[in-house]
């Protein structure tokens, strides 16, 4: 890091003082925003940024949302080609073109017809990948008639999902992808039941709702959040639906240079030894620091849970795991305790597809064990709740209760993620499974690392190498940076006179740049989050320059006010 920090001219001092001066109304406005989710604040900032861009030569740079600006093409090309096969199969059983009518795909012999279809489509976009998928599936014991029928019927969307939780072959394919991407192939994917959901957003909603419905969490219960963390995990426990007591496990560890390591010291992990802590929520790699938990910390966490708190339930949000080489989910160390949530949205550039899964170990898991241990009066309540499903409620696994709860139980028969979405999910998973040399993964990592590197270079600060860094977001602690550039007195002045929201508001109003305030993720005060996924390298250079210049204006005003 280097900054010569030259003496400001009188004109620069005047401009800086004018820029950073706040009216009482502005202070009150910023104070009111502090109660809002940073995602809602971001929408407000986006409006400010658009107004600035209309009135200036600035370009709108929205680094506030984690929507990637790439898509994975091959599995999409395969999906579109597969649609043609689905239509062909539908026309075999009934074809009335004058009325735009066709029938339903038929299973008998469909596997050979699929091979014939691929032979006719040789060289077309998506054909080679589908042919590779066939080889992979046959090598791994899949019945081609079963897969081809599931795909033809599924892509046509002509039947309700059955089973409701996830289609049979889709589950097997995704089990293998979860095993590879979350555990490096060290687990038997078939040991885990999957629930296909409308993105991890739905996974979170369904998990919390079913935990409450099944008396696994109740108002006043204590839960732990590993912070900083994706804001909804901070907000959901406080809703009157749940009213939970939150304990934070803070990633407060610093390295030898005093910089954030975004890891969890022993004294923080020890909070999980308290058996009154019933649920742990962890986003790993973290959001917004975007750093995976160190292996020694993860193993220490597992040791504490197994020895001191074996009934701890864990929601592990592993959405960004595929951006870290040889990623290891907490599912590996605590398979019986963990509900693993994985989304295809970020890695495959598919946020609009709404594709995710929840994985829970089959048969032996803490969720089912705690349900079986409920007192008789609560079991009676649950028997009444799920009575329309079966006359043996005690045999319904927690993950299947989630499926029913997702449709208020009564509509369980029409539950489940749409079948065209599940077909696309299976093709994304196969794309990952067939990427044996990790060509796609390494390119994703390279793109994000370049963007992060240029952002910090333009800030004047070189980040040390860290193999645990996913680089999907960057959390910039401006308080720490202020102290390093100008000293502790400046940092104290900044925090005493300004809200942590002040700089993100000014960036939007004055430069057209949208960032999110890190404090809204329970990150350091005066930190900002930049999404590295949805802008190009040159954009991050501009963001870094503007952030650095704006902090410099605060410093100039501080020097003029204090004479330092």
Automatic annotation (TrEMBL):
Instruction: List required co-factors.
Output: pyridoxal 5'-phosphate
**Tree of life domain:** Bacteria
Give a GO molecular function annotation for the protein: L-aspartate:2-oxoglutarate aminotransferase activity
Give one Pfam family, short name only.
Aminotran_1_2
Q: Which PROSITE patterns match?
A: AA_TRANSFER_CLASS_1
Q: CDD domains given for it?
A: AAT_like (cd00609)
- UniProt domain Aminotransferase class I/classII large: residue ranges: 213-535
* Enzyme nomenclature, EC number: 2.6.1.-
Supply the alphabetized keyword list. Aminotransferase, Lyase, Pyridoxal phosphate, Transferase
Regarding protein family, the annotation reads:
Belongs to the class-I pyridoxal-phosphate-dependent aminotransferase family.
Q: Which PANTHER family match?
A: BIFUNCTIONAL ASPARTATE AMINOTRANSFERASE AND GLUTAMATE/ASPARTATE-PREPHENATE AMINOTRANSFERASE-RELATED (PTHR43795), BIFUNCTIONAL ASPARTATE AMINOTRANSFERASE AND GLUTAMATE_ASPARTATE-PREPHENATE AMINOTRANSFERASE (PTHR43795:SF2)
Q: What is this protein called?
A: Aminotransferase
Lineage runs:
Bacteria, Bacillati, Actinomycetota, Coriobacteriia, Coriobacteriales
